[in-house]
Design brief:
With 352 residues, the chain is α/β, with parallel strands linked by helices. It has helices at 2-5, 9-17, 53-65, 85-94, 110-118, 132-139, 144-158, 181-190, 216-234, 282-288, 290-296, 298-301, 319-326, and strands spanning 23-27, 70-74, 98-103, 122-126, 167-173, 194-199, 257-258, 264-265. The longest helix is centred in the middle third of the chain and has 19 residues, at 216-234.
């Protein structure tokens, strides 16, 4: 998964030295056809005055000029509801960049699946559960599971996955799906699908559903089980660290998020708007942002237990959960099982 979503330490170090980007996360629209209980965006979100096609083209071009090699399509809503998606995919290919799409797959039909395959788009399908009833409940929509399975089937019939067309499934860890994730993980591995398992972010809709939050110990046990499965069955070795299983999240060293209204954020988990591409060039925003400068030197600037952790060189926890729960994006990640403190129950009231 590292080669699909991330970059090597050598590439990251070189980009950091030259103050370049390696990827840009692009939020495409705020409309959604689901109401996921764990969604980081929040329910009934609809933003006005979203970026137009030419504005998105310009932002992506600026990112490429800064060294970006990959565009990651995410959504405050569902990216396939944005009518500009095909044009953007075509433009990104024209620029010679790679792209990764996160989608609930409900709107994927044969035509769309064939188009993504033709354009070599890496696709990650949201897959919170393999159980229809639980899937629909977490998605907040009856029939969501059946529609997702249909979209996933169209992708597989189009030719996914193969060497040029990666296919993944994304599961956000919550108290209701945590026991079945090892089975989902092995099903994905056995079908050459990338399993993407991420800790829940304490923001948006999730903070209204505290029953979703697993204990630190349960999350630790899950990650250790997944690491053992990979080591024993698939010859893949990794250390169990939050927030993503089998993947070292280092996005703050080489990436940022462009939201649908043109605001630049460190990532989707840190809801800090540090500039807008409608009023300032991307290079200027990145150069002048104190937040991004501090996060780009997170190894030096991180506070608390994370600074002396044995996994300090490979992991710095979830900056989103540090910001949302501790009120400080440089704080130790309160949700990490290596930090012994009080139970985590929701959103901090001391945001900066």
């Amino acid at each position: 998964m590292q080669e699909i979503l991330g970059f090597s330490d050598k590439e990251i170090a070189l980009a950091s030295h030259h103050k370049q980007l390696l990827s840009l996360e692009v939020e495409l629209g705020s409309r959604c056809n689901l109401h996921c209980e764990y969604c980081y965006s929040g329910k009934d979100l609809f933003r006005k005055n979203e970026l137009g096609l030419e504005e998105l083209f310009d932002a992506i071009s600026q990112a490429k000029a800064l060294g970006a090699r990959k565009i990651i399509y995410i959504g405050a809503g569902e990216p396939l509801l944005d009518t500009k998606l095909k044009d953007i995919v075509h433009y990104v290919n024209k620029l010679g960049l790679k792209h990764v799409l996160f989608t609930n797959a409900i709107l994927i039909n044969k035509e769309i699946a064939d188009y993504f395959f033709e354009q070599e788009v890496c696709v990650f399908v949201k897959y919170p559960s393999a159980k229809e009833e639980l899937f629909d409940r977490l998605a907040g929509c009856h029939g969501a599971f059946a529609s997702m399975k249909r979209g996933l089937k169209f992708l597989q019939e189009a030719g996914y996955p193969d060497e040029k067309h990666a296919l993944g499934v994304e599961s956000i860890v919550c108290s209701y799906n945590i026991k079945e994730i090892p089975d989902v993980w092995q099903w994905a591995r056995n079908n050459k699908i990338i399993p993407y398992v991420e800790c829940i972010t304490r923001k948006g809709s999730a903070i209204e559903h505290s029953d979703l939050f697993p204990t630190k110990e349960a999350t630790r046990d899950l990650f250790e089980i997944l690491a053992k499965i990979d080591n024993d069955k698939y010859g893949i070795y990794w250390k169990a660290c939050p927030p993503i299983a089998g993947f070292s999240c280092k996005r703050h060293l080489y990436s940022c998020t462009l939201n649908s209204q043109g605001y630049i954020q460190p990532c989707v988990g840190i809801d800090l708007k540090i500039g807008n591409i409608r009023t300032e060039k991307l290079a200027s925003i990145l150069r002048n942002s104190k937040v991004l400068r501090e996060l780009s030197q997170i190894r030096t600037n991180i506070k608390g237990v994370c600074k002396t952790c044995e996994f300090h060189n490979d992991c710095y926890g979830c900056r989103g959960n540090a910001y949302n729960l501790a009120g400080d994006y440089l704080a130790s990640d309160p949700t990490c099982w290596r930090i012994k403190n009080e139970a985590i129950t929701g959103n901090s009231s001391c945001k900066k």
